[in-house]
Design goal:
Blueprint (H helix, E strand, L loop, with lengths): L2 E5 L2 E4 L5 H4 L2 H15 L4 E5 L5 H7 L8 E5 L3 H11 L5 E5 L12 E7 L9 H12 L2 E11 L5 H4 L12 H10 L3 E7 L2 E3 L1 H4 L5 H11 L7 H14 L4 E3 L2 E7 L2
Parallel strand pairs: 3-4, 3-6, 4-5, 6-7
Antiparallel strand pairs: 1-2, 7-11, 8-11, 9-10
Helix pairs in contact: 2-3
The protein binds S-adenosylmethionine.
Length: 256
């Protein structure tokens, strides 16, 4: 399992172990299918923040055309190496860049640029975040498409957190509004993304609860018992039939 360097000074290990098994596969593959439909037909593609390439592969495997090349950008060098090795046998992978979005130095323009759940790590303040919204759209060819998958404000991911995790400009609503205000045609597709928490609610043991806490709060250390109690109370409050709904929004922006 990789260590994740989301910000220069922070490192998170093993935070994804429990999240993929929690996601409802029907929900997630519904999202993947829509992404694949939106990207289908594009010849030049880049995935910004591909991680180890699992989502990338789910999408590329479902494209209708094979005559594409997908570049990969990822700041975590080991994750990018794993992604390249994992994807290359079955997918058309182009260039691989070890870089953050902010530091990406390229004049190349793409038919489609996509990014899945990476915007939280782009910037620490609104001005820098807006710069990244400009930067990522600047990678798109005229009449091409930018796809940003991210969470809405009312996601249970945010509802169950015991403190604000990411600044509010990360919400899908802010991103959509930003592009619309700048005069772009921007649309949103809204999805359910349910997460099973029945295992956590059916035991008094704290191991899974505390791991889930780490994932939700982007922490590499375990919470105190007091924090874990508060977190459990929030999970109880927001769950329905043992599921939370993180929801997911796909923002689609057309380049001018
Ligand atoms: C939650 S993971 C999502 C991975 C993958 N896109 C997916 O959906 O499965 C966030 C990814 O964003 C990457 N990342 C962190 N900071 C970034 C930045 N400034 N620019 C681009 N990617 C970044 C991380 O290294 C990590 O791979």
């Amino acid at each position: 399992m990789a260590n994740w360097h989301f910000w220069g000074e922070k490192q998170f290990s093993d935070v994804y172990e429990n999240i993929y098994i929690r996601t409802s596969m029907e929900d997630w593959f519904g999202i993947v299918d829509v992404l694949a439909k939106e990207i289908s037909g594009a010849k030049s593609i880049i995935d910004i923040g591909c991680g180890e390439g699992h989502t990338t592969k789910q999408i590329l495997d479902r494209l209708k055309n094979d005559d594409y090349a997908c570049d990969l950008l990822e700041p975590n060098k080991n994750a990018l190496l794993n992604a390249e090795a994992f994807l290359s046998p079955e997918n058309n992978i182009g260039k691989c860049y070890v870089s953050t979005l902010a530091n990406f130095d390229s004049n190349k323009k793409y038919d489609t640029v996509f990014t899945s759940h990476t915007n939280y790590y782009w910037a620490l303040n609104q001005k820098d975040f807006d710069d990244q919204l400009e930067k990522i759209l600047g990678l798109v060819k005229p009449k091409g498409k930018l796809l940003i998958l991210t969470l809405p404000e009312d996601s249970d991911h945010y509802n169950i957190a015991v403190r604000q995790i990411y600044p509010e400009f990360n919400y899908s609503e802010y991103i959509l509004d930003y592009y619309k205000k700048s005069g772009y045609v921007a649309n949103i597709k809204k999805f359910d993304m349910k997460m099973y928490v029945g295992d956590i609610l059916s035991t008094k043991k704290r191991y899974d609860l505390k791991n889930f806490f780490k994932f939700i709060h982007n922490m590499d250390t375990y919470p105190t018992d007091g924090e874990a109690d508060l977190f459990l109370e929030r999970i109880r409050r927001f769950q329905k039939n043992n599921y939370l709904n993180f929801k997911d929004h796909l923002i689609i922006i057309e380049q001018k």
